[in-house]
Design a protein that fits this description.
Blueprint (H helix, E strand, L loop, with lengths): L15 E6 L5 H14 L4 H6 L9 E7 L2 E15 L2 E13 L8 H16 L4 E5 L5 H6 L3 E3 L3 E4 L6 E4 L3 E5 L13 E2 L6
Parallel strand pairs: 4-5, 7-10
Antiparallel strand pairs: 1-2, 2-3, 3-4, 3-10, 5-9, 6-9, 7-8
Bound molecules: coenzyme A.
Length: 194
Amino acid sequence: MPGFTSFRYNPLPDMDWKLIPEPELSAALEADIQRMLVAAFPNYVDFFNANSYWGSKPEYRLIAMQAGQPVAHLEFGFRRITVEDSAFEIAGIGAVAIHPKHQGRKLGKTMFSHLRDHLQQHTHVDFGFIGCHDEVAGFYAASGFTRVQQSVYSLNPDSQAWETFHGPTLIMPIHSSLEQWNSHGVIHLHGMPW
Ligand SMILES: CC(C)(COP(=O)(O)OP(=O)(O)OC[C@H]1O[C@@H](n2cnc3c(N)ncnc32)[C@H](O)[C@@H]1OP(=O)(O)O)[C@@H](O)C(=O)NCCC(=O)NCCS
């Protein structure tokens, strides 16, 4: 992938958007992200007290800061995946969260608009990719993703076993169109999910 540099967006008042390569993430900011994730995921308090992501190690973080604290967060990384005999370059996305005080104000949708712009301008990926729970699939559909009706084969970071995921899976066109996606067959991530 071509070189990245940190940059700023200012789409909402007082929001300072940053794209941070993982090696440049400070321990202090990672701890602040964990506190935000704890607030956003009340069912995973113990997990996010100990971790700032699940599964594949992030390569970049996209964060909105307000008053010195992260209020929006996602992480992503790049991979070549396959669907039967088709191969696609994807940006796998995870740890998507908006601080509860800021939810419902289009901040999540804005975050994906920035991610899409970035991926279009600075990468060659075909699609953004995310797996999620049923409860939030509608949010991703409203934010530029299309649900695919395929299972996903990947390495479960909890069980350390290769497993097939049957939950909601969505893709966001970047440099390829939905028509170019192979909608038949299992999606093989060749590693852990995000
Ligand atoms: C899910 C989450 C990221 C959404 O962020 P948000 O800033 O509150 O959402 P937005 O205000 O940008 O909503 C954008 C659109 O998605 C819709 N939407 C938001 N949450 C939704 C949900 N749970 N189900 C269906 N649609 C949803 C909104 O109605 C809006 O639709 P519209 O543009 O057609 O009017 C946020 O609520 C959150 O952090 N939740 C807790 C953590 C979590 O579940 N993360 C996802 C893990 S996969």
